Amino acid sequence: MTHGEYLTEMGKKIRIERRAKKLTLHKVAIRCNVDIHTICYIERGKTNPHLLILKSIADVLKVDVKDFL
Fold it and tell me: pTM higher than 0.70, yes or no?
């Protein structure tokens, strides 16, 4: 699996979890204290998120960060 494919798969997992929790991109971004575009780029696999941002997203979604890996 390439780096791009890995990021895309991770983003899909985040998006699925966010939608299951019925949270908008905006709500997750606010709770993570990041720009909405950051969450959008992560979900689309367009950026490699910093570990602390990934941990923050996991905390907001109430899952373990390893669930995204």
Answer: yes
